[in-house]
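ESCALATION

Customer reports they have been waiting on this structure for their group meeting. Please prioritize. Original submission:
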Amino acid sequence: MDTALDTLPDDADALKAMVLQARAETATLRAEHDRLRELNERLQHIVAQLQRLKFGPRSEKLDPDQLQLGLEDLEQAHAEVEAEEEKDDPQLKAHRTRQRRAERPSLPEHLPRIEVVVEPQTAACPCCSGAMVRIGEDVGERLDVVPAQYRVIVTRRPKYACRACQEIIQAPAPARLIEGGLPTERMVAQVLTDKYADHLPLYRQSQRLKRQGIEIDRGTLANWGGYAAAELKPLWALLRTQLLKADHLFADETTAPVLDPGRGRTKTGWFWSIARDERGWGGTGPPAVVYTYAPGRGAEHAAALLKDFKGVLQTDGYGAYKTLAAERGNAIVLAHCWAHARRKFFEIAAKGHAPIASEALVKIARLYEMEAEVRGQDPAARLAARQAGSAPALEELKTWLEARLGELSGGSPTAKAIRYALGHWQGLTRFLDDGRIELDTNPVERAMRPIALNRKNALFAGSDEGAEHWAVIATLVECCKLHDVNVADYLADILAKLVNLWPNSNLAELTPWAWKAAHPRH
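Update from on-call: job pushed to the front of the queue and completed.
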C-alpha cells in the first residue's frame, strides 16, 4: 500500500478504510509469519536430530525410526500449511493441482477399478435448452481402501446313504493347519506377515481384532504361529542346506533377548545369519538369507552352523570365525569387511578435528569408488580392474597407515583403528584374489535390520523354542523381500500345500524364488 503523505486522501472515511485494510493485511502477514516461524523451528529441530544421528556419540544417537516419525510430523505440518494457502488462493490451488496430476505415480493395473460417473444435473443446453451431445470426458483415478474384512468359511460335508444297503458316504474333511482350530491358512499367514514383515506384535494384533468384535487373545495367536513354524521348518532346513552348499557366504550375528522364566528376566540368545548374494558379480544363485537361533555366541555355535560349509566366508573381525577357520584349515577362507574398518575411523572423525582419521576415510572411499565401477561385471573383469586400480591403492594405504601408527601413542583411538585394519589386512585384501568377494558384509548386515526392528517391537522371545520359530519364519519373510514376493500370499499358499502333504522331494518348488517363477503376478 502506497502511504506517501501526498497520496493520502483528505476524506476521513477513506482514511479509516485504508487503516482497516492495513490492519487486515498486517494480521494476515503476522499469521503467515507465525506459521513460517513454527515450520522453521521444526526444521531446525529435525536438522539437529540428523546431526545427532550422524555425528553424535553412540549412546546419544537418535534411533532412525524415531527420526522417521519426526519427519512424518514435519511433512504433515507442511501439508497443513499448503492446504490453508490453497483455501485462500484459488489460482495457487489450481497450479498445485496441475502439479500433483503431472507428478503422481500411475496406479497398478491389477487393482480393481470402481467406476463412478458424475453427470451434469441436466443435459439441456443452458442457452437454448436443446439436447446436448457427449463429446468426451475427463478421467481421474484416486487410490481407495476397503478396511480389512474378516469372514467365516463355512464348510459343509453332506452325508449320503443308500436306502437299499444302508451304506453311508461323505467326503473327507479338508486338511487344516490346526485341526479343530479357528483359523484358515490365510489367516495364520496374515498374522505371521503382520508380526515378522511389518513388526506388529501379537498383542496389538489382538487389539485390532477386538475392534472388529473378534475376541482372540495374544496367546492363541502365538499358538497359531507355533503350528505354522512346525510346518515351515523343513523348508527352512532346505534353504539352509542350499546356502551351505555355496562356495561364498556372508555371516553375521545379533542378539535375541529370550525370556528366562527361572530367573524372571530375559537372557541373551543369538541369531546367527548366513547370506548368499551373487548379484555383485553376476552369479546365478538366488539371493537368500537364513537365520539360526543359538543360546550363545561362542565359537562352538559358529562351528555347528557352518560344519558343512567349504569356501569363502565374509565376516567382520569376530574371533569365533577366526577360530573356525583355523580349525578347518583350507576348507574356509576368511574375507573381512572394509565397512567395519572404515567405521572405526569414522567414529573418530565425527567427534572433531582428526586429520589422520579423516584422511583414512578419503583413502578408503577411493576403494569404494573403484568398486562401484565394476559392480555387476563378471569375476574375471572385476579381478582385472582390482589388480589395476585397487591393488596399488591398498599398497599405498598400508604404507601410509604403518607410517601414521609410528607417530601416535599406542593407546590413542586412532592407533587402535589403524591396528585393527593392519591386523585384519590379509582378510581385507582377499578381494584382490577373487572377483566374487565384496568389499564388505553389507548384504548380511542389511538382513539383520528387520531382526532388530522386530526385537524392538516384540521386546523378547518367550522361550528358546519361540526364538527358533522366529528364525524359521523370519528366514522365509526376508527371502520373500529379496525377491519382491508378497509375503502373505506366499505363506498362505505354501502353508496350504504343506498341510495337504506336499512331498518333501518337491520342497524346492516352495522356495520364494521358485514360487515367484510360478506366480509372477505376486
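Sent to customer with the following note: Strands lie at 159-161, 168-170, 248-260, 265-276, 288-294, 311-314, 332-335.
Escalation resolved.
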